[in-house]
DNA sequence: TACTTTTATACAAGTACTTACCCCAAAGTA
DNA sequence: TACTTTGGGGTAAGTACTTGTATAAAAGTA
């Protein structure tokens, strides 16, 4: 889990633009390649870690857990662990995360339409 | 302009998931950090290269021109150049790009709301 | 002549993202 | 005993993204 330089020029720039542009603010939170697809799968229903893995077979475990962590830190996803063996961990959307549904839906609609038009 | 390996494992995975998930399809097209903000600025009105640069002061010229190129390849942005000196180049949204407005608007609304709630 | 403007391009270097591979606990099951 | 299941952690390596700096053409202006 390599540390990220928080005071790099890049991060400074990103934060600057987030102040003036709401779209950039959103991208800073869900801009990674996998985050929207994770949120999309969770928006249907809460899921266990292994269910997410099966739902998104293309993602590696490392990426999945890393993005889930970041989504927790951004208060978009809630992690609920039951202290049993084997572990039982459920991920669900927080209220803030649930409010992303219009965004995810608009994306899905556009994606389907664009796919159809291009064959 | 370093070439990108189109047949890397990563790209293969991305394309796989795009087939089954419309949200991932969208991310493959506008998933970069700067693409949505560029599209957002163009959605208000067509803009010259230098206008975009002023509108998004945080982006480097390299990134701006690179993403504009990719957006052209994905048929989301149209480049219109008049053969004068100094050059006069205008960027605008294609019909497919214009259809992204609901997505960009949904993002902006969520971003503003989330910013407000967190102070 | 020298400097400015506009829209870029090229190359090197740094930073972040992603993958690949190996490892663990602790209970249940064959 | 040995193997499976679940939810991860650690490290190294490869790949992509981003920046910084230098460069260009051709007309207009000081």
Please explain how this structure is put together.
The structure is a homodimer of 119-residue chains. In chain A, a hairpin with a 5-residue loop joins strand 2 and strand 3. The longest helix of chain A is centred in the last third of the chain and has 18 residues, at 101-118. Chain A has seven helices and three strands. The first copy, chain A, has 119 residues and is mainly alpha-helical. Mean pLDDT of chain A is 85; it is low at 1-8. Chain A is globular and about 50 Å long. Chain A has a three-stranded antiparallel beta sheet with strand order 1-3-2. Helices cover 61% and strands 12% of the residues of chain A. Chain A binds chain B through residues 13-14, 16-17, 21-27, 29, 31, 33, 36-37, 40, 56, 58-59, 96, 99-100, 102-115, 117, and chain B through 13-14, 16-17, 21-27, 29, 31, 33, 36-37, 40, 56, 58-59, 96, 99-100, 102-115, 117. The first copy, chain A, binds a DNA duplex (30 and 30 nucleotides) through helix 1 and helix 5.
Order of helices and strands of chain A: HHHEHHEEHH
Q: What is the count of DSSP helices of chain A, taking H or I runs of 4+ residues?
A: 7
In round numbers, the mean pLDDT of chain A is 85
Q: What overall form of chain A do the CA principal axes indicate?
A: globular
Quaternary state reads: homodimer
Question: How much helix is in the residues of chain A?
Answer: 55-70%
Unreliable spans of chain A are: 1-8
The portion of residues forming beta strands of chain A comes to: 5-15%
Largest sheet of chain A: 3 strands, antiparallel
Spatial strand order of the main sheet of chain A: 1-3-2
Q: Any idea what the radius of gyration of chain A is?
A: 16 Å
Gap between N and C termini of chain A = 40 Å
> How many strands appear in the DSSP assignment of chain A?
3
The structural class of chain A is: mainly alpha
Hey, which two chains have the biggest interface? A-B, 38 and 38 residues
